Amino acid sequence: MDFQDNKFILNFFVEKESSDLQLADISNIAQVIIAIINVGLLIYIFCSDRKRSKEAKIDEENKNFKSIKLQGFKDFIITPNFPHLQDFFSNLLTLKRRINSSQINDELSIELNSFIKTEVSKFRVNFNDAILNVNRDLFDKIKLKIENLSDNLITVISDGEFNLTDPELFITHIESPINYAKNEIVALIITYKGD
Amino acid sequence: METIIDLSAFRTPGSKVFTGRDRGIFVRNNSKIDELISSSNHVEILVPDDIRSINPSFLEEFLINVVQKLGKNDFYKNVLFKTSGRYNIEDDLQEAVDSILREENGLSR
Questions:
Q1: Contact assignment for A132 to B19 by CB distance below 8 Å
Q2: β B17-18/B2-6 pair status
Q3: In this predicted structure, what is the pLDDT of residue B107?
Q4: Which of A124, A131, A140, A147 is the mutation pick for testing B, counting most B CBs within 10 A?
Q5: Is A155's Cβ below 8 Å from some Cβ in B?
Q6: How far apart are CA A43 and CA A28, in angstroms?
Q7: How confident is the model at residue B108 (pLDDT cuts 50, 70, 90)?
Q8: Residue A98's pLDDT is what?
Q9: What distance in Å separates residue B17's CA from the closest CA in chain A?
Q10: Per the count of CB atoms within 10 A, which of A72, A107, B59, B93 is most buried?
């Protein structure tokens, strides 16, 4: 065996050992990385579970608060004051017998206008003011509906364009707007969610 | 110094009422009542004789800045409505002024 043969055999063994060492290192590094990923995943799952349960708790508390507020709104504001809402619209419908002339003169017009405004004022005091301190938005929406209704009724009565003793014209210009406004306000109250 | 605003200049032709918030804003801007109240001690507002109603919805928008600036007592001292027809504005004016001040102080605002 000459010198060249010995060198070849030595190289063969050294390279084989070096290759074994690299594979073991890679395997170890991979195991460490997997372990780190596992720990990371564990922490992530723990944190996201905690966050989710915290959010669910806040959501549940909000729902309970809304539910209590809605129940209070119903028990302390709507139920006791609902007859005032019904009275308001029923009283407005008495305009049918109050309008006793086809030509509404200044005196009758001012009397009818005053009657409508008094009813609006009573409705505000007995019903809508109670809502102001619970929900400003709902208060404003109801106020606007009532305002539009009374403005329209007063304009129709004062400007005297129509003979309101005519049953059909009375229904078109007085009765229908009253009933429509009532339905709209009832719908606003029913759809209130306690926000 | 006293300034006069004649509402007959702002009425809708043929109408015997002043109603609605839009109309109130229109008259407030065009009569320049907010500027006049700053430059004059008193403002007199003339209501046409044949008017049958001036609704709170109109008055609230027409007078909102003046009422908020002066407060209730000074408003009644410095802004005078002059009517010579059958219509009496007192109740509607009071309703509008109270409404402006009440809603300004609404608890949920």
A1: no
A2: unpaired
A3: 38
A4: A147
A5: yes
A6: 23
A7: very low
A8: 94
A9: 6
A10: B59
| Section B26-45 average pLDDT | 93
Radius of gyration of chain A (CA): 40
Task: For residue B43, list its beta bridge partners.
Answer: B3, B79
Whether residue B107 and residue A133 make contact (CB cut-off 8 A), yes or no, is: yes
pLDDT of amino acid A23: 80
As a whole number, the mean pLDDT across chain B is: 91
Interface contact A159, partner B, CB < 8 A = yes
0.80 cut: is pTM over it? no
pLDDT of residue A126: 93
Q: Do B106 and A106 touch (CB under 8 A)?
A: no
* CB-closest option in B17, B56, B103 to A158: B17
pLDDT of B109 > 60? The answer is no
- Enter the tokens of residue B23: 């109309």
Of residues A183, A182, A184, A164, the one with CA closest to residue A174: A164
Closest listed residue to residue B45, CA positions, set B28, B26, B69, B20? B28
Q: Would you list which residues of chain B are within 8 Å, Cβ to Cβ, of chain A?
A: 14-17, 19-21, 50, 52-53, 55-57, 85-87, 91-92, 95, 102-103, 106-109
Q: What is the pLDDT of residue A9?
A: 60
Joined together, the tokens standing for residue A141 give 């929406």
Chain CA centroid to CA B48, Å: 14
Q: Torsions phi, psi of A139, nearest 5?
A: -55, -50
Average pLDDT over residues A137-152: 95
Interface predicted TM-score (ipTM) of this complex, two decimals = 0.87
Q: Is the pLDDT of residue B81 over 70?
A: yes
